[in-house]
């Protein structure tokens, strides 16, 4: 028998048990819109390798994804933040042991229109803008124009991290802030308004918006990994502590070299 045929036969024998265990399994993924593109791309690649596994992915917000996992309507809850105490309590009440898998790192990046001359803001200035204390760009080195603040809604993990690291959890977002349901919607709104400011995950920065430095530090994979960038975070996939075979296989795939290559391609920072 030719050598290539022998190798192919050996691989088939080695993979057969895994393929049998995965046959007919379905995975439901819900949660963070930040993690959504990464989940979609890795799901596509995973299904190419295991065509008997069907994966559905939805971007519903971090809070909704975590609740879906605890309620049993999702196998994986994507989240761009950690569990809240009330979510841990709910999981305990329902007898669900939750496991956290950090699959990537990210920067939350303040973005403005490319024509805006402002290029660097401190966390204090950002907090003042979103609290409504700074309402004119001239107060932070820009033009004499009103600031249009664009924010995520309260179910967003991105909002939670921004609220904690920029505003301080006791400070409310200014009431005239325009709330958007996703990173993509924030980027689109900023791209269409010369005097707007918003914040998005690193993977959502494109040529139609300008990323700002924060405290003089540029958002990048290097500054996220080193901790130099002040609004960095982990991106998580939560599962039950003892997930079904296909779910564990998918998490292992996301953390594999190929999965981490997809992390990079989607504009995030690999953890491995």
The end-to-end distance, rounded to whole angstroms, is 39 Å
N-to-C series of helices and strands: HEHEHEHEEHEHEHEEEHEHH
Global geometry:
globular
Strand content: 15-25%
CATH architecture designation of the largest domain: 3-Layer(aba) Sandwich
User: What characterizes the major β-sheet?
Assistant: 9 strands, mixed
Mean pLDDT: 92
Fourth-tier CATH superfamily name of the largest domain:
Periplasmic binding protein-like II
* Number of separate domains: 2
List the uncertain runs: none
**Number of E-state strands:** 11
Structural class: alpha/beta
What attributes does this structure have?
272 residues, globular, 11 strands, alpha/beta, 2 domains, 10 helices, D-Maltodextrin-Binding Protein, domain 2, 9-stranded mixed sheet
Characterise the protein shown here.
The protein is of the alpha/beta class. 39% of the residues lie in helices and 22% in strands. The protein has two domains: 3-105 and 235-265, D-Maltodextrin-Binding Protein, domain 2; 106-232, D-Maltodextrin-Binding Protein, domain 2, CATH 3.40.190. The protein has helices at residues 3-22, 36-49, 62-71, 85-93, 123-131, 157-167, 183-191, 221-226, 245-254, 257-265, and strands spanning 26-31, 54-59, 76-79, 98-112, 120-121, 148-152, 178-180, 196-201, 210-211, 213-214, 232-240. The strands form two sheets. Strands 1, 2, 3, 4, 6, 7, 8, 9 and 11 form a nine-stranded mixed β-sheet that branches. Strands 5-10 form a two-stranded parallel ribbon. The longest helix is centred in the N-terminal third of the chain and has 20 residues, at 3-22.
């Amino acid at each position: 028998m030719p050598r290539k045929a022998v190798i192919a036969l050996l691989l088939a024998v080695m993979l057969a048990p895994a393929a049998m265990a995965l046959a007919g399994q379905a995975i439901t993924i819900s949660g963070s819109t930040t993690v959504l593109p990464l989940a979609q791309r890795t799901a596509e690649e995973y299904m190419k390798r295991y065509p008997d596994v069907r994966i559905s992915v939805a971007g519903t917000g971090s809070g909704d994804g975590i609740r879906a996992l605890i309620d049993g309507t999702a196998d994986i809850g994507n989240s761009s933040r950690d569990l809240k105490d009330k979510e841990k309590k709910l999981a305990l009440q329902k007898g669900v042991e939750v496991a956290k898998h950090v699959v990537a790192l990210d920067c939350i990046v303040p973005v403005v229109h490319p024509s805006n001359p402002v290029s660097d803001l401190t966390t204090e200035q950002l907090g003042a803008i979103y609290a409504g204390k700074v309402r004119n760009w001239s107060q932070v080195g820009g033009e004499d124009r009103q600031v249009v603040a664009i924010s995520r809604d309260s179910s967003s993990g991105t909002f939670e991290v921004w609220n904690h690291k920029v505003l301080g959890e006791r400070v409310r977002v200014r009431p005239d802030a325009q709330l958007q349901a996703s990173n993509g919607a924030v980027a689109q709104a900023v791209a269409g308004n010369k005097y707007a400011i918003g914040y998005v995950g690193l993977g959502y920065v494109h040529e139609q918006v300008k990323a700002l430095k924060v405290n003089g530090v540029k958002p990048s994979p290097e500054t996220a990994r080193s901790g130099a960038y002040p609004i960095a975070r982990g991106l998580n996939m939560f599962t039950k502590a003892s997930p079904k075979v296909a779910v564990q296989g998918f998490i292992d795939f996301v953390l594999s070299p190929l999965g981490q290559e997809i992390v990079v391609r989607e504009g995030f920072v690999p953890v491995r």
